[in-house]
Amino acid sequence: MTVVTAEKDIAWATRQGRQDRKARTQCGSHQSFLKRYNLRRSEKAREMWTKYYRSSRQAPESAKRKSPSPSKRAGPSRSSALGDERLARLRDLQRKLNPPEAIRGAWR
User: I want to staple 20 with a disulfide (CB 3.0 to 4.6 A). Which of 12, 26, 71, 99 is the partner?
Assistant: First the structure.
């Protein structure tokens, strides 16, 4: 087994982690990372694994949201009274469209 860490560096490991995540082939352990990319255990290989692992686990910058949209923000709804009013109007409309069973029978 030859060491090719001179060609492979931290930036390579970061890029490779992203590529492997996209391809869904990321290494799940340090050992499998060393074996797949033909690396020997060393401090540099450990740093490469750390960058590889972190970049293969996080979403790309373009997919990250800075803050939630105004309509999706957490917190209480505008007003429960407004919700109750809408619910009452909906029930009223349902009664008009679907009259009680006694009236429905008379219409048949």
Answer: 26
Q: Which residues contact 21 (CB under 8 A, 6 or more apart)?
A: 55, 56, 57
Dihedral sign of CA atoms 77, 78, 84, 90 in order: negative
Alpha-carbon Rg for the chain in angstroms: 30
pTM of model > 0.70: no
4 vs 2: CA distance, rounded Å: 6
Residue 49 · residue 33 · CB < 8 Å: yes
pLDDT in tens, 27-66: 989 999 999 999 999 999 999 999 999 988 876 555 555 6
